[in-house]
């Protein structure tokens, strides 16, 4: 579903990604782990078009999308829930969710009706968001904002979701909650590329994982394989 | 001192102030999406007014001229966006400041060459006769200013709050990158904001010209006051510009009545300096909600 081949990207003159290759098959959860500064977030940003790759290929459903604007890539079926969540603070929770489905809804009127079933699904998954649907998203707690960011990505009914550090800055209890949501998404057959600092938890939910070091993939394999890999254990699981 | 005269001056000043508010609102529209404003907005008001006047000269009926003038304003707004703003935003430079000022200068010269330097009357079917409201006389034209301003701002605010495209507009103002990730094109939204802003400027021109006449120099007087209003009110509050616009208009007309018309510009500038010194975010400007 998502193929990243020999991707190069960076900021200004400094190249961060020096040939990243990774594949996400339909219906699988793939984890991307690695130390701070290894290039995980940059990989996500280069895939979704937030920064322009300087080389390599990104294929979404077999079609090359590298070099397109982020909004074009989103229209083609990629939802990126970015690092730091980036909810629309002044807008209500419900408006945030509706904007997640921006590509499928009528531009002017009647969008609420058309989004009703999808909204109901999201509210079922995140009852807390339903309670707060009229509240400004910026006033939610960090955990709630993370739920909102995931819900907003789901509203697009995307082919692939990129989830960047959903546990960042959250209390351990909330992190547990986030991972149980990810597990539920996996059971629902959603294709997910997950970037995480918490390597252990990420490996528990993932079908396959990549370990990034200095801008390229250093090790890859199934979680079972990585759990045996001495290098991975020493660096990330110890 | 006669209370009647004070009230009279304040009310007609306040109605003029609504036009400053409308132009300031045009600043807010583009600032929201792109953090840039058109410093040639006054010239845009003036060019649209001249264009509308030409339509009238050509025999176009007044009520057909209004949409024509608004379309012209919107088109000019798009020209400003494409020619002066887009490239510098892409390069994250502040080049738009200089380029929009240059646009204004070009517009000024063009107007002088096409329409001449003289101020010209702008005919309107709306009555200039005064009506009496509780001892204060208000002309039909002044009422039309109030109706026009509230109508345009009301429609745009409804668009922003009630339609998905309007919410997308707000999303781009809140977080451009995140909006892009939803499939909302920031470029298109910024174009839309410049188009709307141009339309708002044209509306201001059509509303005020029958009262003040049309001339190439009308731009500079208007822009300075609209700018004061925008800065004093804050660049994100539509309600704020209306309140401050009304206050400034009233203050101005009282100042010129009591101190002489030479002092007319003083209140706006004093308010501007005070606002920048005391409340740089504007009286109604809100500190944005940021929470991680």
Relevant terms:
heterodimer, A: 238 residues, alpha/beta, Rossmann fold, six-stranded mixed β-sheet, four-stranded antiparallel β-sheet, 10 helices, 26% strand, globular, B: 292 residues, mainly alpha, ABC transporter involved in vitamin B12 uptake, BtuC, two-stranded antiparallel ribbon, 11 helices, disordered C terminus
CATH class identity of the domain at 2-85 and 157-237 in chain A? Alpha Beta
In sequence order, what are the helices and strands of chain B, one letter per element?
A: HHHHEEHHHHHHH
Whole-number radius of gyration of chain A? 17 Å
Compressed to H and E, one letter per element, the order of chain A equals EEEHEEHEHHHHEHEHEEHH
Total domain modules of chain B: 1
Q: Give the CATH architecture of the domain at 2-85 and 157-237 in chain A.
A: 3-Layer(aba) Sandwich
Major sheet characteristics of chain A: 6 strands, mixed
Q: What would you say this structure looks like, in words?
A:
The complex is a heterodimer of chains A (238) and B (292). By secondary structure, chain A is an alpha/beta fold. Chain A has helices spanning 40-48, 70-75, 93-100, 111-125, 127-131, 142-155, 172-187, 199-205, 223-228, 230-237; strands at residues 2-11, 14-24, 29-34, 55-60, 63-64, 78-81, 160-164, 192-196, 208-213, 216-221. Helix content of chain A is 39%, strand content 26%. In chain A, the strands form two sheets. Chain A has a six-stranded mixed beta sheet, sandwiched between helices. Chain A is globular and about 50 Å long. The model of chain A has no long low-confidence stretch (mean pLDDT 93). Chain B is mainly alpha-helical and 292 residues long. Chain B has eleven helices and two strands, in the order ααααββααααααα. Chain B has a two-stranded antiparallel ribbon with strand order 1-2. In chain B, helix 2 packs parallel to helix 4 (95-115), helix 2 (41-57) crosses helix 8 (186-212) and helix 10 crosses helix 11 (266-278). The radius of gyration of chain B is 19 Å and the shape is globular. The model of chain B is unreliable at 288-292 (pLDDT under 50). The interface between A and B is medium-sized, with 39 and 26 residues.
